[in-house]
Amino acid sequence: MTKSTLTDALREREKIRARRLDEVIRALRALPWGSVIAVLIVAGCAALAPARATDPKLQPWQDLADATTKAYGKWYAPRVEYALPNSPYEGARWSLGTIYVRGELLDQLNMPLLFAHELGHYVLEHRSSSPQVEMEANAQAVEILVRARRVDELQALTAFHGYLLSVHRSQASRGVLPGHASACQEIADLVRRYPKHETVTRTWECAK
Predict the structure, then answer these.
(1) What is the maximal distance between C-alpha atoms in the chain?
(2) Threshold 0.85, pTM exceeds
């Protein structure tokens, strides 16, 4: 192959690359921006998302996380993993795309409420803790149980009141956790967010 022929071949190859790039750009411009973003996100997640937990005891919790993702149209589902032994938090914790759960507490009656609370942080995309943030997650947790698990709203609200009331009674000796309001204040806030049930909730302890 002569030098002239090689040069011509290289030029033709560059022209082909340029045409292909131009076709891709024009195709992307023709799509709605929402579709473009969705394609990029899905492709990125498929490449980067870690493997899901396979422990059968975690599966019901992963299923609830996945159902919540679907109910709210979120673009990713949180992973569910075991927390390290002797973790200081109570039951579950949301952190950077993962909900960590304490294995020894998975069978406790209040675990679905604690887990739904952490899903509330996920849905609301919380990145820090404060009394206001925790109360928002409580209210969101009630809605999650309704939308993702078809629990009756008043039943979910009643369950959270019962749980927070037990926390309120334990705070006399344990104190209030950092970043939280008192459980009694959290109850009052939660009840205010569901005024349609006032005929029932107005008699609840700490409701006012």
Answers:
(1) 95
(2) no
